[in-house]
Structures are given as C-alpha cells and as structure tokens.
# Entry
Amino acid sequence: MSWDVIIPFLRPIEALIRDPEISDIMVNGSSQVFIEKHGELMPVPSVAISEKSLQVAVRNIARVLGDEISEEKPLLDSRLPDGSRVAAVFPPCSVSGTILAIRKFHSKRYTADELTRIGTLTLPLLNDLRDAIEKRQNILISGGTGTGKTTLLNALASSIPDGERVVVIEDTSELQLQKPNLVRLESRREHPGLPAVTIRDLLRATLRLRPDRILLGEVRGGEAFDLLQALNTGHAGSLCTIHANSAELALSRFTSCVLMSGIELPYAAIRANIADALDLVVHIERRHGKRFVAEVLQVERYVPATDNFEFVHKFQRSEASS
# Structure
C-alpha cells in the first residue's frame, strides 16, 4: 500500500502529497491548508477543499487503512505501511470543520557524519557520543515534535558494534537500522477479535530474547518502568527517545511515565533508579527550520533531600551558534 491508495480521495492536495520537500500537510477545515517545507510552516492559499469532500475523503481513507471515523468516533489516528501518519478530527469535536493532518515518512536516512555536515551535531560531540555508545552508556534522546529524535537515534545506533544483538521496539517501524543480528518488534492496537500488544508487552518479551542492546522508539507511558528495570539489570548501552522541552525536563517526564505504570514505588526510589539507569540525556531542538543538538547532560546522581538530579553539562550550544 502506498500514497496512491489514498490520493484518489485527496486530488486537491495531490501535488502537496507528492512533493518530496513537504514533510507535513495540515488541512484546517475547508478554508485553510498549511504545509511544512524545509522545517518552515507556511499557508497554501491556492488550495481549498469543500467540507463535504473533505469528510468523504477522510472516511474513505480510514476505511482503506482498516480504521473508522464518524460522528460517534470522531478521531482518526492511522498510518500507512511506510510509516506516514494520517490523523483527523470530525465535527463537532473540531469546531471549524474537519481537520486533517498528514505527516509523511521520509525514507532518507541520515548518517551521523551527514548530521555533522548539516550542523545537527558538532564533530567533537559526535565523537563523544560514539565513545559513550562504545562504553555501553544508556542514552535518552529528548526533544519536541519534529525535532529529529528518531533520525538522531538511528544515526547514533549505527555505531553499535555489528557483533551485538539489537532489539528495536516501536509503535510503528521507523528506524532503518542495518545490523547483522537485528530483531524488530512492533506494537499492535486492539482490533475486533485481536487483543492489543503494547510496548510494555514487547519490552517484557524482549528480556527473554537475549538482547545486547535495546532501542525503544519512544517512551510515552508505563513502559518507562519496564525499561528502567531492564537498564538496571544488565542491559546497558540502550537508547530511547522521549518528548520534552529540555534535557533536564526529560528526566521529569521520564519520572512521570514511570508513575503511569501503576507500580507502587516510592517517588524517591523511582528518581534514584532513573539516575542509576540513565547516563546521558541528549536534547535536540528545531529553530528557524534547522535541527540541532542543544545540550547534553551527564546524569550523576539523585539527591532526595532537594529532589534534584545532579548532572554535568557535557555540551550546551550557545545562542550565537544556533
């Protein structure tokens, strides 16, 4: 299945879908279309879709992708097999008319050296991160939506030695890692007659698959507890990503995710375990269309008396260089 399956329902924006330089397409009802191109958001005033046509298109797209959207179920969150995302909201939940958002998955895989050339990483920082991977340090990559967390994870993971067994766990396969001993696991949403297979289920199964390294596409909820257990019981050298606005806030976000697991542990014990498990937090940002690593924290320890993590700023990008 490719874009050709849903394009017949979206002829007014076909050119936008086929444009390889456009990463996101956002339809805000029938009157407004926006795109993201080269990291910049911009309107497309020449394109318009009637509300009736937009609703029909979204219903058909949902049906083709094995999903459903209606007034009774007004939210759609689906993916094409290539990893591209299609999300929609129907009235009355969307006040201004049907909302459609398409995020295209780009097959272009940046190597770590290419990220250095385009300014995402400095060469000394890249060498430090490669050294950390060689030393089997656990790395958490944080950032906002569209900052390039998965791209950076993919590039850094290429430094893992070929002789190691790597297990990749994702909601939808996006990482394009090439390793001789690679196991790819993907979660499954609940379907009629089929139970859900969660990230937590896959993490628990992973521990019985003899992994040398665990790569978790994104920490979003209670699976953070299972990952923490794995990192603190001999599975060093793992990498994962998390949504956060800074490297320091990523540690707070990770704490919140552990608390979502429902496991009753003292708050201080959770924070101490996080400090023991995570070695580096690499934070990536996007400004003016450019993506770059803004800071790297080396986590030292957790201090219960002040409820603070002690860390060292291994790298912090200056405002002048960003």
